[in-house]
Amino acid sequence: MSDKIQMKTPLVEMDGDEMTRIIWKMIKDILLTPYVDLKTEYYDLGLEYRNETNDKVTFDSAEATKKYGVAVKCATITPNADRMTEYNLKEMWKSPNGTIRAILDGTVFRTPIIVKGITPFIPTWTKPITIARHAYGDVYKNTEMQVPDGSKCELVVTDAEGNETRQLIHQFEGSSGIIQGLHNIDKSIASFARSCFNFALDTKQDIWFASKDTISKKYDHRFKDIFNEIFAEEYKEKFEAAGIEYFYTLIDDAVARVVRSEGGYIWACKNYDGDVMSDMVATAYGSLAMMTSVLVSPDGVYEYEAAHGTVQRHYYRHLKGEKTSTNSVATLFAWTGALRKRGELDNTPDLCRFADTLEKATIRTIEEGVMTGDLAALSTLENKKTVDTETFLREIDIRLKEML
Ligand code: NAP
Ligand code: MG
After folding, report:
1. What is the CATH number of domain 1-118+291-404?
2. Which residues pair with 5 in a beta bridge?
3. Is 293 in the pocket of ligand 1 (CB under 6 A)?
4. Helix pair angle (312-319, 18-27), 10° resolution
5. Residues of the chain with CATH 3.40.718.10
6. 274 CA to centre of ligand 2 in angstroms
C-alpha cells in the first residue's frame, strides 16, 4: 500500500475539450496523482469521442454519476455550425450539460471564489453569493406568436376528459401584437425546492427564494406555495437544528437586499431570473474564471465543474506552441469539491483534508501575488507576477507541499 491518500469509492471523471482538457491533465499530473491514489471511472466527453459514440458516452457518464453519487466534469464544446466543419461531426450534438442535467433532474449552484486583492464591484460582498437557477420551463420552453390586428387571443386548456376551459388573453383592436404561452410543472418546481434546501443544509447557509407573486397570482404564486409547503413539511426542523433560515420575498425586494448584503447565502431564482442574475453576480465578483458550479439532484447526487467554457482562443495559441496564462482555479475547485464530497460520503477525512488544503494553497498562491493574466488585470496587489498556465500550478504545488 502506498502512502498516498486512499479512496474507498471511485468518482466519475468527465474529460472535456480544448484548453480546459489541457488544464485537466496538468491538474491531475501536478496536484492530484502525486498525493491521492485517484480512483475514477473515466468518461471522455471530448467532442471527438462524443461524435464517435453518437453521444452515448454522455448518457453513460450521467448514469454512472447516479450510481457513484459524485462526478467532476471538464468544460465541453456545445457544437454549433462552425464546430460541425471543424470536427467533421455526424450531427450537431446537444450540450452535454443539458443532457446530464436532464438525466439527473438537477439544479445548478454557482459560487464565486473570493481572494484578497480582487474586490467585487459591490465592495460589501465579502462572502460568496451562491445562485441557484431553476433550469426547466418558463420562457425557455415557450410558444409565441405575432398576431394581426383584430385577433382574439385566448388561453385554452383541454383536460383529460376533453373539457375545455378558456380565458381571454387579449382582443387586439387597432394594432397588431405579440403573445406568449409559458408553462412549468409542479414536479420540477418541487425537485428544485428540494435541491435548494438540501444544498443549504449541506453548506450551512441561509436560502432566499424570490418571484413576482404579487403580479403573477397563479403562476409565480405556485412556486412560492410549493417552496413553502415542502419547507414546512420536510425541512423546517432540520433548518432550525442547523441554525439556518429560509425565507421568501418579492424579487424586487430580493435584488435590493442582495445589493446591500455582505453575501454568504444562497439565492434561489426562477429560470429567467437565474440566467440574468448569475451573469450579473459573476461579473460583479470579478471573473468568470473564478466561478465554480455544482449540479445537485434532489436525491443528493453531485456533479462539479467550472462555470466557464473551454477557453477556445487560448487553446489555439497553445496549439501554435505559445505559452498561455489560463486560469485553472475553477477547474481545480471542481476537483477539490468532488474529492471533498467523496470523502464526506465515504467517511474518509484524509481526502476531505487534502481537498481543503489544496484550496487553501491555491488561494494563498494568488494572495501572495502569483496569478494568471486574467486575475493580474484585476488584482490590486502591489507585487503581483503574471505566470503561465503550468507555472501557476507548480507554484500552488510548492505551497501545498509545505502545508500538507
Ligand atoms: P469561455 O470558454 O468561457 O471563454 C470566454 C472568454 O473568457 C475567453 O476567451 C477568455 O477571455 C475568458 N476566460 C474564460 N475562462 C477563462 C480562464 N479559465 N482563464 C482565462 N480566461 C478565461 O466561453 P466561450 O468562448 O463562449 O466558449 C468556448 C467554448 O466553451 C464553446 O464551444 C462553448 O460551447 C463551450 N462552453 C462550455 C461550457 C461548459 O462546458 N460548462 C460553458 C460555456 C461554454 P480572453 O480570450 O479574452 O482571454
Ligand atoms: Mg445568461
Report:
1. 3.40.718.10
2. 36
3. no
4. 80
5. 1-118+291-404
6. 8
